[in-house]
Amino acid sequence: MKEAKSQQKTFQKRNFYCINDTSNIFFLALIFGLGLSLVYAFVFTKIMAGIDPNFKLQEAQGTPIYLTNYFVSTVLLQLVFFLVYFFYHKVQGISFDASNIKKPNAKESFVWAGLGFVCLLGFMCLIEGCFGHMFSAMKLTADNMKFGNIGIYFLSVLLVGVLPAVIEELIFRGVIYQGMKNTFPTWARVLLCGLLFALMHQSVLQFIYPFILGCVLALIMEKTNNLVYCMMFHFANNFSTLTVGYIMEIFGFDFQNMPMTWWFILVSVVVALVTALIIFLALKFVKSSKTEEEKVGQEPLRSSLSLGKMPLLLLGGIVLAVIIIVINACI
Questions:
Q1: Where are the domains of the chain?
Q2: Which of 89, 99, 108, 239 would be 174's cystine partner, CB 3.0–4.6 Å?
């Protein structure tokens, strides 16, 4: 009887990830995401050149053309990520249960979603103010999203707030982080997951905070073993970003206009440290209904192409992402 059950499990879909899945998913998401971005940028540029040869996207902020381009590129990228996630599971014979999407607890949901707001607000002055001035001094500037009206704000919440919170979590904390569990210690996989998450944003300007966010989300996944809480935290963070940005636009506030005095820097650092302490205390003391499931299915053989514990495909993806960031910074 036991042998029959054992044989049955062998033929079932695998319900866990390994380091090969981490490297494969990251590389595929990076390559297909980059490929789509290049194709879409080429098509969009050709179309706009045919309409207006003097068109410059940077000068069109807040216009219907700029907003359409912003939303379409965002949705297409998230669609590519989802297709990579979906078809990888189908081809590799992995159960979607491996991502650990479970029914959330109401109390824990409130805690982790609340921390998503706290994280954004606590680090905003440091990231947008202090580091923002530093990047400006280096002549690295980013296009700020201009909503224009409340309808665009709500559309942004749906497309920029909800979609990435769900789909990016499927990729990064669903597969990438959990695939490293049997290979790296907790501290190493948390930092590596944060690094990969930041690198996928393909921008120097969007590196520091995504790295912090990626590490915090990895710690939440480690604490709860439930991807839903990561999605809630991520959405709360995105919602805070969009809401604060919309309010700042209404009142005409810009961190770049703030004088970089010693007290502003001091307050920014202190607030960021207090925020980090709050997150640390929540991760340490909040009780979690964490459950581990029995592994089902046969673990695939590890790739022999690796540097120590690190698969060369993952290293190649990291190097490629760094090259893209350097190129984007120089353009």
A1: 16-95+109-288+305-330
A2: 99
Which long-range contacts (C-beta less than 8 Å, at least 24 apart) are formed by 180-189? 180/19, 180/22, 181/17, 182/18, 182/19, 183/18, 183/19, 183/309, 184/309, 186/222, 189/218
Return the structure tokens found at 91: 């081809």
Q: Which among 301, 295, 298 has a CA at the least distance from the CA of 97?
A: 295
Please tell me the distance from the alpha carbon of residue 8 to that of residue 6, in angstroms, as a whole number. 5
User: What residues have CB less than 8 Å from 131, skipping those under 6 apart?
Assistant: 208
Q: Cα–Cα distances in Å, from 86 out to 19, 83, 175? A: 18, 5, 11
At 192-234, the pLDDT tens digits run 999 999 999 888 878 999 999 999 999 999 999 999 999 999 9
pLDDT tens digits along 38-89 = 899 888 888 888 887 777 777 677 678 888 888 999 999 999 999 999 999 9
Handedness of CA 164, 284, 177, 214 (dihedral sign): positive
Report the C-alpha dihedral over residues 203, 209, 212, 217, rounded to 10 degrees: -90
The whole-model pTM stands at: 0.91
Helix, strand, coil percentages, rounded to 5, for the chain: 75, 0, 25
Q: What is the CA radius of gyration of the chain?
A: 21
CA distances from 303 to 21, 62, 133, 269, 272 (A): 11, 48, 44, 43, 41
Residue 207 burial by CB count (10 A; 0-12/13-18/19+): exposed, middle or buried? middle
